[in-house]
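Standup notes
- HV: blocked on the assembly model, inputs below
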Amino acid sequence: MNVINLTSSCNSDFVRQVEEESGQQLSLCYQCGKCTAGCPYTTEYDIPVSQIMRLTQAGQKELVLKSKSLWLCATCESCTARCPNKIDVARIMDVLRHMARREGYGGVKTVKTFWDSFLHSVQKNGRVFEVGLLANYISHTGRFWTDMGLGPMMLPKGKIHLKPSAMQGKEEVAKIFRRYTEESSK
Amino acid sequence: MSVSLTYAYYPGCSSTGTSIEYDMSSRAICAALDITLTDVPNWSCCGSTPAHTVDHTLSSALSARNLCQVASMGLTAAVTPCPSCLSNLKTAQHRMKNDSFREKVSKLLDKPADITVETKSVLQILVEDYGIEKIKAKVTKPLTGLIVAAYYGCIMNRPAEIMNFDDREHPMAMDNIMTALGATVVPFPLKVECCGASFGIPRKDVVMRLSGKLLDTAKEMGAMALVTACPLCQMNLDMRQEQINSANGSKHHMPIFYFTQLMGLAFGLSEKELGIDKLCVNPRSVINALGMEGDSKEKSQ
């Protein structure tokens, strides 16, 4: 068990910030552990979600934001659905990874790269273009064997395309991303 | 006579490719039920999971652009087959009730965000707006003898305050539709357990474990097939079923239907218009066992 000196290490600004961005009251968590009991991803986590909640209450910013768990949460909403105190735990996990991104924590590289590649594809094409997304992901991770075997099965069925879909108004979507970048750098 | 149902239809990106059969069969059964679906003009991606993991304003703006497109059609009701799209659209609507959040979203858009549009899933309009009894009345080829497990995935009903549909732990909408079609539905304890979601590419091992558990359990419960309502769940279970078998040493050959495909079969629609041939795990033996030998009418023509 980790021993943490709360007097010297509690970052109360961090606690306030998480509460503000998530709209949730962290002190409502009384550590019943139900979120962790139902979390399908807990075997992959370095810190179980109930402990993420406890560490966040205790203002342990660095420990929380460097946790791999934040990147392995699929937002399946089990924790939120089952919390006896109606805390939207999944939303807190979302907000924590927003903060982790902003503070430059790398997270789980493959997951972050996949999400970035997905959004890059949307920004460029207005809709997701799977083959482009995969190519981008592979170029950034070097994982050349990723789903290679599925192409021959999916192509003849018309379930993957070699060109992005031609949608009108994709520049409107690109503008959303551009304005987002401008707004967040203010 | 009742007034016909009309909705703006938001297909979502997967409908153009990986879940093309969900799109085909959703359109086909709605046409058969006189439900009018009008495509949202120039719809764009909702941002799916990746957008909300980056920022909630960005995520809501990507959804809000589409809600604006719906409003420009003069419609206030939109429908999508995909739970992930639905979750993003509904979450955006929910959060934009807060004025200061809506202003932040509007700053990213060409025009102010709209908050008048209501969105539902195809499943939801079928059970809530159309009705199970009327669905039952449309069945011409009952699915007698078909034993299925209904798998809803994790976000069709959750979070309950936002999705506002069915039960968060024990949904019954698809179970009830399948029963109305004449199929036998087995109890399925993992109805809302996650399949591994979008980790198929970055952490395939997780999908192998979670989707493998779903297939194992469906088989143990005696299901011949799984029926789904989510493009991502269906893809993990169907397209990745051989990968799951290799990873886990299992030997599943479990067809993974969209519930709309089974509705279409029971309504007597052709396999071709329901995209049955698009499924990766061949469902031929299961369909043949129902006394449906493929599109015989078309072949003989």
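- HV (later): unblocked. Chain B touches chain A through 55 residues (CB under 8 Å). The domain at 6-123 of chain B is CATH 1.20.1050.140 (Glutathione S-transferase Yfyf (Class Pi); Chain A, domain 2).
- Next: hand off to the docking folks.
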